[in-house]
Amino acid sequence: MNKEQTVNKGQAYARYGVHDFDSFDCVKLSKGIYLSLLFVLRGYIAWIISITNMRDKTAIIQWLYPDPALFYLSLASGVIGLYLVLVISLRRPDAANWVKTSWRHYKIIIIIALLVDLIVEVSGYWYWQLSSFNALISHAVIAILISYFTLRSKRIALNIADFPEKLPE
Question: Where do the domains of the chain lie?
């Protein structure tokens, strides 16, 4: 790394305090990363919440997904999000090469996950009339906003560029 790259990297970290770094001296993950995963994994989150409901295990799923097919489509489109959760959980200094490679391509993978999720939603609307047009438009707007934020966020760019390394003791 030359002197100019070191200065630019230092300027990128200048606005962060000690509390913004994790135990590996990496900037803590952006809330945008978690927000994007929450959106992509909403079917799994509804499933987990409904399982923990002691009174009626299907009420929450029926409320969020009136048609069971829409729930199953949401689970199918969330598989890429599960993969990203796995990558984030394995993001350590001694991680396998596939984790490092996947992490470097996080932006592309989350955009693909959002696109697949939107395609599933559109196909559910057009082919099976599983949702309303307003729900489809809302879904598209949210997916576009999350994609835009992911692409423009400087913190997410820092997170992706900064992979944990072993620290000297």
Answer: 32-161
